[in-house]
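Quick one, C-alpha cells below. Sequence please?
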C-alpha cells in the first residue's frame, strides 16, 4: 500500500473518503484544486470537505509522503506533439 496506509488511516479516523482527505489537505495548504467526476456520489463527496479538519500530526504524516518522484509528466519537458 502506497504510503503505508497513512491516507487510509486518516480517512477512517474522520469517517471520510481518502479522496476527501487529499482534497482537504490541499485546501488547508492553500492549493487551488479542481476536482472532477462524472459520478454524482463523488461530486457530493468533493463538495463535502468542510466537516472535518486535519490535525498538525496528520498534516505532517501526509507531508512526509512527498518524495522526489512525481506521478505525472514534468510540465517543463512534456510535449503533446
Amino acid at each position: 500500500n502506497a504510503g503505508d496506509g497513512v491516507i487510509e488511516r486518516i480517512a477512517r479516523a474522520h469517517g471520510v473518503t481518502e479522496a476527501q482527505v487529499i482534497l482537504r489537505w490541499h485546501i488547508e495548504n492553500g492549493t487551488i484544486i479542481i476536482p472532477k467526476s462524472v459520478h454524482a456520489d463523488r461530486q457530493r463527496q468533493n463538495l463535502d470537505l468542510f466537516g472535518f479538519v486535519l490535525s498538525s500530526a496528520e498534516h505532517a504524516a501526509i507531508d512526509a509522503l512527498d518524495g522526489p518522484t512525481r506521478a505525472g509528466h514534468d510540465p517543463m519537458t512534456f510535449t503533446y506533439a
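The chain is about 45% helix and 0% strand. The two ends are 35 Å apart (CA to CA).
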